[in-house]
Write a structure and sequence with these properties.
Strand content: 15-25%
Strand order of the largest sheet: 10-11-12-13-14-5-15-16
Low-confidence stretches: 1-8, 11-29, 145-160, 209-216, 569-576, 584-596
Radius of gyration: 28 Å
Number of strands: 19
Number of helices: 18
Length: 596
């Protein structure tokens, strides 16, 4: 859990008051989010890699003759009001929120490599463990957790799932080789972060009697990726297939060939593979019969179902029932002391949110509580942010008496299904974000079990596949750089040099500021050359300008954020300078009323 930032807001009244409606005046001004940026790093003790960190940091302090024990560093901003679009932009730049504090780990300084992780739900395939979690929950609802019956049926299904798990591993290996080959054959296509999802290909199992175009009848898997690739590149299918085939790396115990129709086939080089295939056919036949028996048993038990499961999605706000469940969960699971389980702690972390919607915007967006009930008894709560293209999971807590049900895993599957359902009517809504992934932390690696997950490189900002061989090698090496492309890096360095010369007063580089005077909100204004000159005339104002430049660099230049500017004049300056500043801002009475 991210600790509350200790630094006090320059406008406490703004931070604690009711969230104002996001400004959108009639002068073609975008929806603005009011934020207060702190560029300096905040240090804290890392809670993810305790034992490993202690040894490494102790050695580091001895080498540098230091006594500082902090090893986790982050910076960020307090969000007084933020649109869903603005927050999605922030998380795609590596930020994450804890209440109203939106923070980003400082790479290279922190002990752990924290990477934003997301799942493209269209590509999601459940693993054996995830399917088991679903069935366990279903059995609980039909009072089947103690008196199962039909043990032979579940034994047969278990055998089938062991084979399926082996197939999943093989498919992942072959798919990773295909992805790497496509990237080598067509380097330009990799520049598109979404290319893998747009091609949407699978590795499918092939029956022997269907391999009429193969050199032998031992092909096990095939893929039609070249068809989608040829369509995208507007090229001949056979030429594309041969080019991709030529770039496929050598895979142990597998041989690859191109059929005369453009398919890529994978053949096992293990002599016993054919015997294994025949055995799997026999097992699948038994499993098919077992599945029929199980379905009949489930239909029969459906009639005597006693437990009713339901989920309600409500706005993020304090509810006593939720708070009581959270206290029990924190005390039992995380061993928190009662003194830490205050109403204010719960509200600030899980209820208070900066996300607001414009009246004309989609009311479905914003912070929500997914409340899980069994027989009208609250058993779990998932705190989520619904954004334009994704569902972002913030936190989850559940009844500690039901830990055997693995409600955390079940809730993640439910939320993924929820995104899939929304995707049917909104094709842009397609991602499930799970916060930060930490490869070195056992408690956080479970997020990588939802495949195929993507990680945001903390250094380059590019999205990479978690299961990619190069990604895993860099994660194992504790590298903050998961993506490497020399040509792109040279271009980015040139862009960074241009950003350093970025004129924030240029009308084309619209930068908004939110103004304070005597800790009272005055309104929002576009930073003009005149305002810039007034700010630059004082020491405090020049610091504010530097803060604005750092913020623009963090959020990718042009954005819809209005950065809060406090009283920037030195104490010995004349009051008429302040009046001149206010006149140049053109702050209206309407915008002043926002704080009232």
């Amino acid at each position: 859990m991210q600790k509350e930032r200790g630094k006090k807001s320059c406008s406490d009244t703004t931070a604690t008051a009711t969230t104002p409606e996001i400004i959108n005046d009639k002068t073609d001004v975008p929806l603005l989010s009011i934020v207060e940026y702190f560029a300096d790093d905040q240090s804290s003790d890392c809670g993810y890699c305790k034992q490993r960190r202690r040894k490494r940091e102790q050695q580091k302090r001895e080498d540098m003759n230091e006594t500082e024990s902090s090893s986790s560093f982050s910076h960020g901003f307090i969000a007084h009001a933020m649109s869903a679009e603005a927050y999605e932009r922030a998380i795609n730049f590596g930020f994450r929120r804890s209440g109203r504090w939106v923070y980003k780990p400082t790479k290279d300084k922190s002990c752990c490599v924290l990477c934003t992780i997301r799942l493209p739900v269209r590509e999601f395939e459940e693993t054996k463990g995830q399917r088991y979690a679903r069935r366990k929950f279903e059995r609980f609802l039909v009072n089947d957790e103690e008196e199962r019956g039909n043990d032979d049926v579940f034994d047969e299904l278990a055998v089938k799932e062991e084979d399926d798990e082996e197939d999943d591993n093989e498919k992942s290996l072959l798919k990773a080789a295909i992805v790497e080959a496509v990237g080598s054959a067509y380097p330009s296509i990799v520049r598109d972060d979404d290319w893998n999802q747009k091609l949407s290909f699978e590795i499918k199992e092939v029956k022997n009697n269907k391999m009429k175009n193969s050199s032998d009848n031992c092909a096990v898997y095939m893929t039609s990726v070249c068809f989608a690739l040829a369509s995208k590149m507007k090229d001949d299918i056979e030429r594309v297939a041969n080019l991709v085939h030529a770039n496929i790396r050598k895979i142990e115990n597998w041989r690859c060939e191109v059929s005369n129709r453009g398919f890529i086939n994978f053949h096992s080089l293990v002599p016993e593979r054919r015997i294994v295939i025949e055995r799997k056919k026999e097992k699948k036949t038994k499993a098919s019969v077992a599945k029929t028996v199980r379905e009949k048993a489930m239909v029969k038990k459906e009639k005597k179902r006693k437990k009713v499961f339901r989920v309600e999605v409500l706005a993020s706000e304090f509810r006593q029932e939720d708070y009581e469940l959270w206290k029990r969960y924190q005390a039992v699971v995380h061993k928190d002391k009662p003194s830490k389980l205050k109403v204010s702690s719960y509200t600030n972390f899980l209820c208070d949110t900066p996300l607001v919607s414009n009246k004309n915007n989609n009311n479905d967006q914003g912070s929500k509580h997914f409340r899980y009930f069994i027989d009208d008894e609250l058993v779990a709560v998932g705190v989520c942010d619904i954004l334009p293209t994704c569902l972002s999971s913030v936190y989850f807590f559940s009844d500690p008496d039901l830990q055997k049900l693995e409600l955390g895993k079940f809730s993640a599957l439910y939320e993924i299904d929820w995104v899939k359902q929304k995707h049917e009517t909104n094709e842009n809504f397609k991602y499930y974000y799970m916060g930060y992934y930490i490869h070195d932390c056992v408690k956080m690696k479970y997020k990588g079990e939802y495949k195929p997950s993507e990680l945001r490189c903390p250094t380059t900002g590019k999205w990479v596949l978690l299961d990619d061989k190069k990604t895993l090698e860099r994660l194992n090496a504790h590298s903050f750089k998961l993506y490497h492309n020399e040509e792109e890096e040279e271009e980015e360095e040139e862009e960074e040099e241009e950003d350093e010369e970025d004129d924030i007063t240029n009308p084309l580089n619209r930068q908004f500021i939110a103004l304070l005077r005597n800790n009272k909100f005055q309104g929002v204004s576009l930073l003009s050359p005149q305002l810039h000159a007034i700010l630059a005339s004082s020491v405090r104002g020049r610091k504010q300008i530097e803060t604005l430049r750092k913020f623009r660099k963090e959020l990718g230049g042009d954005n819809s954020f209005a950065v809060l500017i406090g009283d920037m004049f030195d104490d010995d300056e004349e009051e008429d300078d302040e009046e001149e500043f206010e006149e140049d801002c053109g702050v209206s009475e309407t915008s002043r009323s926002m704080s009232e």
